Amino acid sequence: LLKRRKRCSEFELIRVILKIREKKQKDCSEARMKFLAKRTLAELVELMVMREPTVDELKGRSSGSLTWRQSRGEQQSSAFFSFTATEADKKQKQFNVRYSCSRDVYEKYVKNGQEVIVLDTTKSWNSCQYSSHNIFRKVEHDWKMTYLARTEDTNEASIEWRFDFTAQDLKISSVFINFETKVYENGRISLLFMNENGEIVRDVQKLKNSRKFIVKAVLSGGKGDIAWQHTQLFRQELKCPKYPFEICINFY
To answer: For residue 24, is it within any domain?
Structure first.
């Protein structure tokens, strides 16, 4: 079968199919022809538009009990990593970092006009976090999607990133953040910022004049056995080139 499939071109195959269809529809009534044309158009539209998966279809395969995973220490992850500035960052008066869930990499970069120059690449979502609780990276090979989610059977999860520029005595003049989330049912995701005084703020611009800050996401809620999948961070297609998590900082 694999050898025979290339004996005719795709164009020739389509032409034969259209001729067969024309022959089959030759004796159809006008009303029947209109119905078939309408159905063909609907099928074409369905093929062109990506369908949103249902909650049950999002589930994927689940394995290993919570007790078993806790015994293996998979629920808590602490890299105690903090993003810090270099002399080059100080000179450029900027600090930029972004994360691709599809490639599972962090990239530190500098902007030179419209040009983006990647300075450093670090593999794995948990390599540049400060700490996390009940978080893992989910890959859906059937749907070709990936995202960070709560571990199975957990009611709440959190992840924290830290930025510390005190060593260079750099004060923040402005901050831009892109932090993409997806929730289903009654899932909840809270994004919090903490300034250098330990005060929790929800507006990222209130980090102005700080020398260090924390970004924290808390995931909770959801319904049923797959409640853990109802809160997702950075969901994207496996081949998507975009960055669903990005922070751009300018200094005085």
So the answer is: yes
